[in-house]
Amino acid sequence: MQKGDIVRWEYQGWIVGAKPEEDELFETTLETLAKEKGIHKEGALYGPAPLIVGAGKLVKGLEASILAAEPGKETEVTVSPAEAYGERDPKKVEVHSMAEIMRLPEFRKGDEEVAPGARVVINNKAGTIISANPGRVRVDFNHQLAGKTLRYRYTVGARAETGADKVAFVLEMYYGKPGDFRVQVKDDEADIVLMEQCKYDPRWMLTKLQIVRDLREYAGIGRVRLTEEYVKPEEKKEARAEGKKDEAGPEKKEETGEGKPQEKEAATPAPGQEGAASHAHGHTHEDGQSHAHEHAHEHAREHAHEEGKGHSHDHGHDHGRGHEHEHDHG
Prior knowledge:
Elements: E1 6-15, E2 24-28, H1 31-36, E3 49-52, H2 60-67, E4 75-79, E5 93-97, H3 98-102, H4 105-108, E6 119-122, E7 125-132, E8 136-140, E9 150-159, H5 163-175, E10 182-186, E11 189-193, H6 204-218, E12 223-231, E13 253-255, E14 261-263, E15 285-287, H7 298-301, E16 311-313, E17 322-329
Parallel strand pairs: 11-12
Antiparallel strand pairs: 1-2, 1-3, 1-9, 4-9, 5-8, 6-7, 7-8, 10-11, 12-17, 13-14, 15-16
Helix pairs in contact: 5-6
């Protein structure tokens, strides 16, 4: 493998126990195994995940192993704490008052319990509560895998070769399946029409900068255009035939000299009046899905990978005009 290769891979990450049977699975791309070991996450995407080799998105020991790995062959590597998340630092354990903890958004509504194992964010630092009593709470800001020896089993699969494949892999790595976006690549330029979810996701602002950076550095893309597309919904017109009066007027009857009613000859409709009621039909279809893309290598760099779909189909009718906002990252 070469640094900068954009590939797919499947893997298992285990915390090494005192005995092999005591090893604990902490992440995997294999959904069946995740369910079997009780770590399955609803909404997470399982299956071969995209990865940029040597980009610093994994722990050092695992990165080095992947660079030397043979594609298509299962490889196993044991990684020491020094080459993973480091040793535990006692100085990263802090004591906070219960009142301060209760003011955190995690507990303000009273839905969550302040108890060992609960995750909190204080001063932009993520930590784990390790003990709690009515007066104070001890929070460990070490990484959850700090001090642990890890074992990975993985297989590196398909490598992205074309510019379009590289763009699709990077988009999926950060934000979901590539089909969520509409992508066109020509030479070193990429045009990406954003899916619906991006327009309303506050995390997109940061995520798009990471995507642009990786496309430039690893996918050979010199110019990236990100387009937000807004399509005006069609104004449906419904014809209402009921209650309309014929322009010729109501049917009239005349009496003959004998006093008998006689129907007056119906007037011939004026040109253009045949079928006075008109019907306008139009269809706008929009399909949307959201993927909270959560790849297992979040533990390596504590990245959260999240993902939505949005596209429209035109069936031969005028569906209104679309307004596009385009961002050009050259």
